[in-house]
Design a protein that fits this description.
18 helices; 689 residues; elongated; 30-stranded mixed sheet; alpha+beta; 3-stranded mixed sheet
Length: 689
């Protein structure tokens, strides 16, 4: 028995030595460069593209199946360009033979020097890579090409071509339903020291969109590549010769857990997004503030499976703003979970800049004569063209979206409004997506409400409810409207729903209501007292009182309003001031930017001269004040004559005679007093002498 075992061992060793000697001789005798033409012909037959091998080929068979190929190019399809689809200066690959026969892949670091890929899309939108992708789905492509290289050299064909054609590599690229499981099974048997790509380039040319981009100086280093071990990645590239992008990452594929999971971390070095977009030949990023979106960096952890991606420990720094938190995405059904917190951000800086000429041209093309006329009046403010604000949203995706999470700001400015401790609770329910609860500290008061997007129909809709409680209105209106218009503190409520393909249609469809209640404030731009004094002076044919109209001071102002068809209607305005009380009713047409409103002011019946020099003459008289015209620049007319009866007009017109008599009496009295005082002074003087 021992003798037999010894004989078997000696025989096996002899066969191995003989095989090693044969392989060594084969390496010395067979020159793969003699088969360049056969290799190129077979690759062209498999994938339909010409392969040109310009550099030398070196190989080894045992114990490493190694290849080193010098410069080679793979031609593009004829309809694209004369430049190669792929060109590489050098590739070096070495795989250990015995583990490969057992279905394991053990390799030295893969070295790729100056790979250049040119992706082209023609005028009809067809890409030059699509035929290769179709081959890959049919089980051809990379495996077939490698088999072609091997089959071109007869001595090398049989053992290794069979391994590649039937082993885990072929299974991983076969395009069957079991791809993922087979790929993971293959990954578990992979041990590669690394993958190093030096000085690569990617050129993109899209004739359909008339865009071209160059990504050059690509360096990628991956060390090592083993299942269930952490893999380090460092990548650098220059886009358009201008902007440098650098990414550091580490990752580990956990194949032991029930669901294979990728764990990793990443760090993106600071770069300029605007310069990146410009370098990529894309439409430039236009922002209201030219310095916005010029610095971006980030880092975080990632966990991913075939069904979801989770971003944890997320940190993004955009300009001077900092965001932290977590995000999670899933595709089926579409799901987003988020918990984000930002320190501060002025969102208005990142909005597209206002373009008056573009707005006017769009309004004219839409036949919006009223908007054009409004823009023609340079002194009158006007709203932007609402028809130009398209609400093009992915409604089908939003209907299925499962959204849950929250987002908060320490300080945020949006639409001119400045808030602190802003918090939004996010959610979705059968196509209603958005903020189920909004809270914030706002201008010494509080914001409370919700804002949801309705994706259930063919056009987007909104459902909004906002309560501003105990808010100081002076800074609110100045930030929101860009003008100092309303002072005081109190409450503003708004609720309603609407739907439309653009902002104009949305406003037209919106139906809602609200209320306003303010205390101890003033209304700037409308001085009711001043208008009454002017009307009274006109009636008496006197010079108008000196001074410009300033404001209407009130102790309380309340109103409720309804919104429908783009019109805000109010019929119960109540304003009380120290010298009069006013009621108001009318409407503001947002779409036509027009205002038609009437205020009826009545000075207090008990008003005395010392309280108001002129207005006391109108005590008990209700005076109508019409406010009409352009929404943001109306005209004010006071119909004092129509408000007075003939008796009241006669009484007021006779006030001048009464005033002259009073002045004459006062002058006579003063003259008598002055004469008496003069006589007394003379008497004292005589006594003194």
């Amino acid at each position: 028995m021992l003798r037999l075992l010894k004989w078997i061992l000696i025989s096996t060793l002899s066969l191995l030595l003989l095989l090693a000697a044969a392989l060594a001789v084969a390496v010395q005798i067979i020159d793969p460069n003699d088969y360049k033409d056969e290799i190129a012909e077979h690759v062209e037959h498999e994938i339909g593209r010409e392969l040109a091998i310009e550099g030398d080929i070196h190989y080894s068979l045992f114990p490493w199946l190694g290849f080193e190929i010098g410069r080679f190019t793979l031609a593009d399809e004829d309809q694209y360009t004369d430049d190669p689809f792929l060109e590489v200066d050098r590739i070096e690959v070495a795989i250990r033979v015995l583990p490969l026969i057992r279905g394991q892949l053990e390799a030295r670091a893969v070295e790729v020097t100056r790979p250049i890929v040119r992706l082209n899309r023609d005028e009809s939108g067809v890409g030059n890579w699509e035929s290769l992708a179709a081959d890959a789905r049919r089980g051809h492509g990379a495996v077939s090409a490698v088999n072609g290289v091997l089959s071109a050299a007869p001595v090398m064909t049989e053992p290794f071509s069979r391994i590649l054609a039937s082993g885990p590599i072929a299974a991983a690229t076969a395009g069957t339903e079991g791809d993922l499981a087979e790929l993971l099974e293959f990954v578990e048997r992979v041990d590669v020291e690394g993958v190093h790509i030096h000085d690569g380039a990617l050129f993109w040319n899209d004739r359909q969109a008339d865009q071209s981009t160059a990504v050059e100086s690509i360096d990628v280093n991956i060390d090592p590549l083993r299942a269930d071990e952490t893999v380090s990645l460092a990548a650098r590239a220059t886009v358009g010769g201008l902007e440098r992008i650098e990414l550091q990452a580490d990752a580990r594929l956990d194949t032991v857990s029930p669901v294979p999971r990728l764990h990793g971390g990443w760090q993106l070095a600071e770069f300029n997004p605007k310069d990146l977009v410009e370098a990529a030949d894309l439409d430039p990023l236009q922002t209201e503030d030219e310095t916005a979106l010029t610095r971006l960096s980030g880092s975080g952890r990632i966990e991913a499976t075939s069904e979801e991606i989770q971003l944890a420990e997320l940190l993004l720094e955009v300009d001077d703003s900092r965001a932290e938190g977590s995000l999670a995405f899933a595709a089926e059904p579409p799901t987003i979970d988020m918990d984000l917190h930002l320190d501060e951000m002025d969102i208005d800086r990142y909005l597209p800049p206002a373009d008056t000429e573009e707005t006017q041209d769009t309004a004219a093309s839409n036949g919006d004569d009223q908007a054009v006329e409004a823009d023609a009046d340079k002194d009158a403010p006007a709203l932007p063209d609402l028809k130009a604000i398209e609400l093009d949203l992915p409604l089908e995706l939003l209907r299925e979206l499962d959204l849950d999470g929250q987002i908060g700001f320490d300080h945020v400015q949006i639409a001119g409004l400045s808030t602190r401790d802003f918090a939004a609770e996010l959610g979705s329910d059968n196509g209603m997506v958005g903020a189920t609860r909004l809270t914030a500290d706002l201008y010494e008061g509080e914001l409370d409400g919700h804002a949801k997007l309705d994706a259930r129909a063919d056009e987007p809709g909104i459902d909004v409810h906002v309560d501003l409680l105990e808010v100081t209105f002076a800074p609110l209106t100045e930030d929101l409207l860009g003008r100092d218009w309303l002072h005081g503190s109190g409450t503003l409520r708004l609720q309603g729903k609407g739907r439309g393909a653009n902002a104009h249609a949305l406003v037209e469809d919106f139906e809602g209501s609200g209320e306003l209640a303010l205390l101890e404030g003033s209304l700037l731009g409308l001085d009711i007292g001043h208008e009454l004094r002017n009307a009274l002076a006109d009636l008496r044919d006197e010079a108008q009182p000196e001074g410009e109209p300033e404001r209407t001071i009130f102790a309380e102002m309340t109103a409720t309003y309804d919104i429908g068809n783009g019109v805000v209607t109010n019929d119960d305005l109540l304003l009380t001031s120290p010298v009069f009380e006013a009621n108001g009713a009318g409407e503001a047409n947002i779409l036509e930017e027009s205002l038609d409103y009437r205020v009826e002011a009545a000075p207090d019946e008990g008003l005395e001269r010392q309280d108001a020099e002129l207005l006391h003459h109108l005590a008990g008289v209700t005076v109508p004040i019409d406010i009409q015209g352009q929404l943001l620049g109306p005209e004010i007319r006071v119909d004092l004559v129509g408000a007075l009866s003939e008796e009241q007009r006669a009484r007021i017109e006779g006030l001048e005679e009464q005033l002259d008599e009073a002045v004459e009496e006062q002058r006579d009295r003063l003259e008598d007093e002055a004469g008496e005082q003069l006589e007394e002074a003379r008497d004292r003087l005589r006594d003194a002498l």
